[in-house]
Amino acid sequence: MVFLEGGNFRTGINDPSSRTGEYPVYNSYVRPYYIDRYPVTNAQYRKFKQTKTRYKTEAEDKEYSSVFVNFLSDGQKQTFKEDPVQDGWYNVRGTTWNKPEGFLSNIEDRMSHPVVHISYEDAHAYCFWVGKRLPTDMEWEYAARGGLDNQAYPWGDRYMKMRMNVWQGEYPTEDKKYDGYDNTSPVDAFPAQNDYGMYDMLGNVWEWTTTKYYDRVIDRATQPLRYTLKGGSFIDTRDGNHNYIVRTANKIGRKPNYSSGNIGFRCVMDMSKEELYARLHASTTTPKPIRIHRKEEMFYDEYGHPRRKKKKKIGSHKEL
Q1: What CATH number does the domain containing 113 carry?
Q2: Which of 107, 112, 229, 312 could bond 206 through an S-S bridge, CB–CB 3.0 to 4.6 Å?
Q3: Within a domain: 316
Q4: Phi, psi of 280, rounded to the nearest 5 degrees
Q5: Whole-structure pTM value
Q6: In whole angstroms, what is the distance from residue 178 CA to residue 259 CA?
Q7: How many domains is the chain built from?
Q8: Same-domain pairing of 189 and 290
Q9: What is the Cα–Cα distance from 133 to 123, expressed in whole angstroms?
Q10: Is 301 part of any domain?
Q11: pLDDT in tens, 274-315
């Protein structure tokens, strides 16, 4: 995991044409936390399933999940219904996290790929098992930005080739695969995307967060429960001409029981109180007074707690 000190930052993007809630830009704050450097992989999720043998994912329970049309045979396209949530996707019977394209598929050569066909509840269950949790929208975006302010990508404002797994060509009939992949890719297939050393924040798979998602122009009371997904996926594009535009601030919403072949997740972990106090104490071993008013000064005691200096009252009864 990567430790991030947190703090104030600007989230969103100055693009009024955005249709996903990433506009406008506003100030936000996150506390110190740890975040996974990579999305959770098939190998990691398999270990969870081997331990929690009775746990059934959403796809296993309902016996189907959403698969991209390019991975289906003509017979499958005629047999299964189209997914109403994503164009070009079908609800294929027998699809699960370890059978990502149906009964005859497997993940034996994809153990380092991000696990997919995972619902919000499935991701939450895994995080709880490892003693972590899902990130909020703000925590995810803070980590993705890598300390940069109001930039489109984790590495800056200019698009760079071979930095993420996205769609190239006409959708869905032509995938030129300039990045080398027509499906998910290993989580370390591309270089770290920012100075925090974060991998796969953009592209490959969307990632669950715990933040509820609402459309901007619709009364929230009338909207169904959905959670925010961040990062874009292998079917999305750099310019948004097909599906969604892939950039740091972008987000979409899905119901907590939804799963598909382009949705995964990563975990975060809070800093313990003991570690927080230790870091505070280490940073204040040689404190310097901080002027906060013209006649008042601050200092820190041996426990790292701020204290105001008491001023002597000349002529008081104690001195008399």
Answers
A1: 3.90.1580.10
A2: 229
A3: no
A4: -65, -45
A5: 0.85
A6: 27
A7: 2
A8: no
A9: 9
A10: yes
A11: 777 777 667 555 544 444 444 444 455 555 555 555 554 444
CB 228 within 8 A of CB 135: no
| Residue 256 pLDDT greater than 70, yes or no | yes
Domain hosting 160: range is 1-271
d(CA 6, CA 308): 26
Q: What percent of the chain is helix, strand and coil (3-state, nearest 5)?
A: 20, 20, 60
Could you list the beta-strand ranges (E) of the chain: 2-4, 7-11, 26-30, 33-35, 64-68, 89-93, 206-212, 227-230, 251-254, 263-264, 268-270, 290-293, 296-300, 306-308
For the segment 81-109, what is each residue's pLDDT rounded down to a tens digit? 999 999 999 999 999 999 999 999 999 99
Q: Are residues 266 and 294 in the same domain?
A: no
Instruction: Name which of 49, 56, 73, 64 is nearest 94 in CA terms.
Output: 64
Asked whether residue 208 is assigned to any structural domain, the reply reads: yes
| Same domain? 262 vs 130 | yes
- Decide if 89 contacts 70 (C-beta within 8 A): no
Strands lying side by side in the sheet with 268-270: 2-4, 33-35, 268-270
Q: Are strands 26-30 and 89-93 parallel, antiparallel or unpaired?
A: unpaired
Structure tokens at 115: 């696990």
* Residue 106 bridge partners (DSSP): none
Backbone phi and psi for residue 203, each to the nearest 5 degrees, phi listed first: 80, 180
Same-domain pairing of 193 and 300 = no
Closest CA to 226 of 103, 95, 106, 137: 137
- The answer on 170 and 287 residing in a single domain is no
Is 93 a domain residue?
A: yes
